């Protein structure tokens, strides 16, 4: 078993070394929590080439592909592992709002669903994706729910949980200003007292 782990670690070291020529400096929130994981930051123009190199060096298992909001832009993450799923590399790129990335479905077929979900939730286009249909939301859904600029309408339109019903015999008069629910900006509120 130890020789399998050692060869797996060697694959990761070789794969990371092969991608070093494409690496770009990057500081993200993941750097603070993922110090034990190999992270390779690449330019969006070398995204597909870096994934091909990782796959060629034996990192053939796709764990996930996702994005997170970094300022006004997106950081896209691809986590790939060796066949033994012991060692892994996190490939990351920084994409400005409105840009796109080439699809990785020809390199990692298992990334198909992940790219569709990321496109739907964050509004990122994966150029060349074979089936870019929505997974969870209707095709005419306005906006992308995981962007910080997306208004959480149900939280604006409905009374926030925890309100005391007026018919409740144990109710007391409100003694402090009503706070907004998480994820709702003051300008989105329909309550005139919040404006």
Fill in the keyword field for this structure.
elongated, two-stranded parallel ribbon, disordered N terminus, four-stranded mixed beta sheet
Folded structure, characterized:
With 195 residues, this protein is α/β, with parallel strands linked by helices. It has one domain (23-159): NADH:ubiquinone oxidoreductase Nqo5 subunit (Beta Polymerase, domain 2, 2-Layer Sandwich). It is built from five helices and six strands; from the N terminus they run ααβαββββαβα. A four-stranded mixed β-sheet has the order 1-4-3-2. Strand 5, helix 4 (112-122) and strand 6 form a beta-alpha-beta unit. Helix 1 (2-19) runs antiparallel to helix 3. The longest helix has 18 residues, at 2-19. The radius of gyration is 22 Å and the shape is elongated. The relative contact order is 0.12.
Quick rundown:
The chain has 5 helices and 6 strands; from the N terminus they run H-H-E-H-E-E-E-E-H-E-H. By secondary structure, it is an alpha/beta fold. It has one domain: NADH:ubiquinone oxidoreductase Nqo5 subunit (Beta Polymerase, domain 2).
